[in-house]
Amino acid sequence: MQIKNRRSALLTFFGAIVILLGVRCSETNSLHTQSPSSSHTNPINSSPDAGNFDDWSAMAQGNTVSPAKSVSTSLDLSTAWTGADGKPVQLVVRQPASLNSRIRVTIGPVNSAEDARPYFESALAKAVQSGANTLSLSGGTYNFLTTENANKSHLLLQNLKDFIIEGNGSVLNFSQNSNGILIQQSQRLRLENLTVNYTLLSTSLGRIALQDGHNVLVIDSKYPVNEKVDIFQLAEVEPASKTFVTGGVRLIFAPGAERPVNIGNQTYQFSGFDKLKANTSFLVINQWYGGQAIRVDGFRKPGQTEDITFSKVNLQSTPGMGLFVTGLKRGLALLDSNFAPDPNSTSNYGGVAWDGVHIFMGGGDVLIKGNHFAFLGDDTMNLNFPIHPVLNVDAQGKTITLGNSSRFIAKGDKLAFFDAQGQYSGYATVDSDIVTAGGGNNSMQLDGLPANVTTKSFVRNVSLISSRYAITDNIIENTNGHGVLVQIPNVLVSNNTFKSIDRNAIRLLSSTSWREGVGAFNVAVRNNTVMNGGLDPGRNIPWSAITAYGQGHDGNLQDNLINENIEISDNKLQNLKQGCIAIANSRNVKIKNNTCSYVTSGSTTNVVTTRSVNVVND
């Protein structure tokens, strides 16, 4: 999977990761230049390289009004706001036409020792054949012991239209390191009132102990392990309160890197453990980006997936990400749901092992509202868009090979090209069908090539730019990562609460080192509350509770502009351990009516600007 490969590459860049993060609050000293009560803007460098940013900005803005608006009905979800640029933005997520007129096929209880998958497959087939529009569950627990052969998912929802999965409080237990629910080529599909859980060991609790003169990691006996159980991440926790330690130690072991070895008796050995304090406790993640609890997928052909709604979904654990979205044409809603571990679980210590919500290719019209996220193993939400590295260039034949899920590119698409420094260099149109080149890479012929395209260049597909996302009224607390990463145009982040998260709350960005993002264009961050804010490590990026920036291929700030038209207003940033607001690589930024306080008194600049143009702090 492309995300595994990308993260593995970055971890290798950091030196195979022994200790990725162990710094404490002293790291922020370089930004401490004024008192916390100040609203001063500190310009470190206000002259970024503009390059061809105007040309790229004109292409990157995305559409501000949903194409579904003209066909929407009173049943559909619609959210409108005024963008940071002062213009209206509206998203629409269509609902099943049968929402208020349900014709049901019911699945009764299934014996706990039996595999529920055949029962679900039979009931779905019956519903489709009979013209029913709702699959209604009994309210009990269903154990999925196997996966279907074609896609290796526990529950495949495919080619459904105007359909509802009515959970009635049911629990779906998945057992394999594979996708739980996989949705493909479906339109106006709604899943509601159910719990998703994995019985597979994905997370456990470990403690550093001294043994024979060296530190080892001892796994709590509640979570039996053997030599076949791996360790891929450790994150420092306080076990009594089950909270992450802000600025605590985090170790990530990518596949292929040196890793802890099981030596029996619930014990793991690793040379890097000697650098850790005895009796320190850790959340242990035992799977490397395993099966996603819910995966929304699609293909660029008739019937592509769109308008998927999840309402009151309780997601307790997963070996991978909670909700992963790729290949969505447009239309997604996550409403009133809870992504948090089951406190009574005997299978897993933690909840979602990695990202809570990761939208890799989401099209547009995404509403994430009224949800609760807690004790996640990584970032809560990543609103992503793929950057494709150029792997091979045949200038004479006008043919290129691109990586990073380039399978979504199609004939007629407009591709924007960027050099190794992230500067826009021109565009071309795909002039042929794509040809699979292996390893998730694809080749295609173009109508021409911009000058100086090399294997150090990058591509963004202008024809698929995601747009119109509203992230509102969510509670994000006690997570081992960031709150929201916004990397696309036309986004509203408002009325969210971020409490005691390990890293900083909101990032507005694009990153060529992660091969992610269009950039933050027309993004409004309003009326959010950050309490007990976390901190980020290293680099030359002025990390803050809210940070707008562009990250280059080396992990540091880019020299050029990345983001445009940002509003940061009426946010309450309290008890922070790092900066308040930082603006880098951005143009036309309005900052107003924000309040900021810090853990300790002393000198901290409330607003830091660097490599930016027209940043106004009222």
Overview features:
618 residues; mainly beta; Thrombin, subunit H; twelve-stranded parallel sheet; 3 helices; disordered N terminus
Structural account:
The protein is mainly β. Among the domains are: 203-285, no CATH class; 388-464, Thrombin, subunit H (Beta Barrel), CATH 2.40.10. It contains three helices and 50 strands. The protein has a 21-stranded parallel sheet that branches. Strands 1-49-46-43-40-37-27-24-21-19-9-7 form a twelve-stranded parallel sheet. A hairpin with a 4-residue loop joins strand 13 (233-238) and strand 14. It is globular, with a radius of gyration of 24 Å. 53% of the residues are buried. Mean pLDDT is 91; it is low at 1-46.
pLDDT < 50 stretches: 1-46
Could you describe the largest sheet, including whether it forms a barrel?
21 strands, parallel
Q: Give the number of helices.
A: 3
Shape designation? globular
Average of per-residue pLDDT values? 91
Percentage beta strand: 35-45%
SSE-based structural type: mainly beta
Record field, number of beta strands: 50
Rg over CA atoms, rounded to whole Å, is: 24 Å
Cα(first) to Cα(last) distance is 45 Å
Helix content: under 10%
Can you summarize this structure?
With 618 residues, the protein is mainly beta. The strands form 5 sheets. The protein has a 21-stranded parallel sheet that branches.
Summarize the helices and strands and which ones pair or pack.
Blueprint: H1 2-13, E1 41-45, H2 53-60, E2 77-82, E3 88-93, E4 104-107, H3 117-130, E5 134-137, E6 141-144, E7 155-158, E8 161-174, E9 181-184, E10 187-198, E11 203-211, E12 214-219, E13 233-238, E14 243-244, E15 250-252, E16 261-264, E17 267-269, E18 281-285, E19 294-297, E20 306-315, E21 323-325, E22 330-335, E23 338-339, E24 357-359, E25 364-369, E26 372-374, E27 381-383, E28 388-394, E29 399-402, E30 414-418, E31 424-429, E32 435-438, E33 441-445, E34 458-461, E35 467-472, E36 475-477, E37 484-486, E38 491-494, E39 497-499, E40 506-511, E41 521-526, E42 529-531, E43 544-551, E44 563-569, E45 572-576, E46 579-584, E47 586-592, E48 595-598, E49 607-610, E50 613-617
Parallel strand pairs: 1-49, 4-5, 5-8, 6-8, 7-9, 8-10, 9-19, 10-20, 19-21, 20-22, 20-23, 21-24, 22-25, 23-26, 24-27, 25-35, 26-36, 27-37, 35-38, 36-39, 37-40, 38-41, 39-42, 40-43, 41-44, 42-45, 43-46, 44-47, 45-48, 46-49, 47-50
Antiparallel strand pairs: 2-3, 11-12, 11-18, 12-17, 13-14, 13-15, 13-18, 16-17, 28-29, 28-34, 29-33, 30-31, 30-34, 32-33
